[in-house]
Amino acid sequence: MWSRPWWMPAIAFFVRNWHLYKRYIGWIIAFWTYSIINSLTVGLIGKQFMDEALVVYLVIGSIIWAFLGSVFEEMSEVVSWEQWEGTIEHTFMAPVHRLLHLMGVGIMAVTFSFTRATVIFIFATLFFHIDLSGSNMFGALLVLAASCLPFLGIGMIAATFPLLSREKGQQATYILQSLIMLVSGVFYSVDILPKWLQPLSYISPGTYSLRSIRAAILENAPMSALMGDIGILLISGLVLIPAGYLIFRAGEHYAKRTGKLKRSG
Prior knowledge:
Blueprint: H1 8-23, H2 25-48, H3 52-76, H4 78-85, H5 88-93, H6 98-128, H7 137-158, H8 160-164, H9 169-184, H10 198-203, H11 205-218, H12 223-258
Helix pairs in contact: 1-6, 2-3, 2-6, 3-6, 3-7, 3-9, 3-11, 7-11, 7-12, 9-11, 11-12
């Protein structure tokens, strides 16, 4: 008798979220248009100062954050989307291991975010005539892949907030997102942060992602120079993904025990 592969439920959640995205394709196009315009606007700041290196520096920051922030945001919205669709109770009561559920959502989040960042990258490259012929693009992509792991873990942690509060939980995730953005040096070097705030930049995976990707693209840094930050990102992922899973499970048990899965009443 044919037995179902253990990973099949993860693929099922991936496909389900794909259909959700198709349902809201109009809104997705609108938000992608906003992201493209936002990246171009940021790049024009460097253009104003007649500094091509600054243009690339700012554009890279906006595109990388469009990717990493989207991975984080899509993971954190896993609960909110379920609440909007009215399927939260069905999903959480289904006989599917929660890790497989989150795995499917995570793969979809990375796929969606990478596609979004690629579209922004193409528009920004054409708009500013950016020459990437002397860049280590393979190294930049490798850093980007390693960056997915810690941000998936942080996304799992953030997804707990809507479980604790249906009304304001999703807004709380934006606070965490903005804090990571502040200390990671998206549009500036973390060296200019106040001394009391700089220690937070050391524990933010975004700091290492942005630093290495900029080094690979702007300075054609070799793989040997990137491996240190890649190692930090991988270790961060190995810590944050299990931690995020455990925190999410604790939030799920609390929501079930207190009846917070119910959307109304």
